[in-house]
Design a protein that fits this description.
It is a multi-pass membrane protein. The chain contains eight helices and no strands. The chain is an all-alpha fold.
């Protein structure tokens, strides 16, 4: 049944609801250059995972902002899909940065996905169900790069520093946005979207012999160097 109320669960005015759509739903559009990049370099898993995140996050936040549901799925279902895609996306970033052989990386991708789906289905709204999978991936990344680094790997230091900077900003924004009713218009959550997608954009290029700017990736005719 569609809720035709004139406000959302936060009791916002129509103007506030519009602002919230821009801050939390439209802000996902910043993912598009990274999606184009991962498609062009044939990083299929990250491409489809990013598309899922873009769609689920937009639909969840759009429903949440205007107080209307369902839009294909209920808001809570879009929210859960958004959580799964977000967690898998961050775990895959650490998986990518480990620079394992293709077979190992593919195995980790499936293990991560299955683990996240199970833990989110069983403890969907427990913050530790988000933190623990990401923490495991981070620890694996640290161990791999500390004791078993890939020899001869060239790293773009500029994009690495920018990626880490945005990653830290994203984690801070996520923390302050956890209490959604205390986060006016979900401003902190919107910053989480912006910062994390900039982190992804830069970190997914640190091993590429040629990097691309945010604006360059909007050019669909751009030729991309293979990783």
């Amino acid at each position: 049944m569609i809720d035709t109320g004139k406000t959302n669960k936060y009791l916002h005015t129509p103007f506030e609801m519009l602002l919230m759509v821009l801050i939390t739903a439209i802000s996902n559009g910043i993912m598009i250059p990274q999606i184009i990049y991962t498609y062009k370099v044939k990083n299929a898993h990250t491409f489809f995972l990013s598309v899922l995140l873009l769609v689920s996050s937009f639909m969840y936040h759009f429903s949440d902002s205007i107080g209307v549901e369902p839009i294909i799925l209920k808001e809570v279902d879009w929210h859960q899909l958004d959580n799964i895609a977000s967690i898998c996306g961050l775990m895959e970033l650490f998986n990518y940065l480990m620079q394992n052989d293709r077979s190992i990386r593919k195995s980790i991708q499936w293990i991560n996905f299955i683990f996240v789906v199970i833990i989110q289905e069983s403890h969907a709204w427990n913050v530790w169900a988000t933190v623990i999978p990401i923490l495991i991936s981070l620890i694996m990344f640290i161990i791999k790069q500390t004791f078993y680094p890939k020899k001869g790997q060239i790293v773009n230091q500029d994009y690495l520093k920018k990626g880490i900077f945005f990653l830290i900003i994203g984690f801070v924004a996520f923390y302050f946005g956890l209490e959604e009713y205390n986060d006016y218009l979900r401003l902190w959550h919107g910053l989480w979207h912006l910062a994390m997608n900039q982190a992804y954009f830069h970190l997914y290029q640190v091993f590429n012999p040629k990097v691309y700017t945010f604006l360059e990736c909007w050019d669909l005719k751009q030729e991309y160097a293979k990783e």
